[in-house]
Amino acid sequence: MRGHRRGLSARWPHRAGTGYRAAPAHANDPQDDLLALRTQNPAATDYANAVVANDVNLAALHFRYRISGDDPPWRPVQVFDDGSKVYVQFPPRIAQGDMPPLFIIGAPGGKAEIVNYRVRGNTMIVDRLFAAAELPLGAGPQQVVRIIRTDGHG
Fold first, then answer.
1. Among 100, 53, 55, 56, which Cα is nearest to 74's?
2. Rounded to two decimals, what is the model's pTM?
């Protein structure tokens, strides 16, 4: 048969007893694969969109922060900056609970200073750099997570 390739059939989808065969499993459309991945992992997609959509230069990101303190379920998984803003990435389950406020440590007068931030997906975006910060949450015994910039500059 001219033009026929072994293992492929133009007659699909498979119907029992008709002789029709399904397309090979590897014949997925790449766009379908991408859609499936986005459906399976919306948090990763939200995070990527939050960073990329804001015209962040990915080559200029600095991963120079250490996370310490308590280990609550909302503890950040990663902190980085782009030279002007700090991005605090929380686990995807943060959407199911409260997000803690962010206090800059070492403000003039030695007091903790609450700062403005916005939240996109599971990422807190702080509009300034800092050397140290705390994320306290809870009544009674508070849980506190510290974020320290490892090069010590703010």
1. 100
2. 0.62
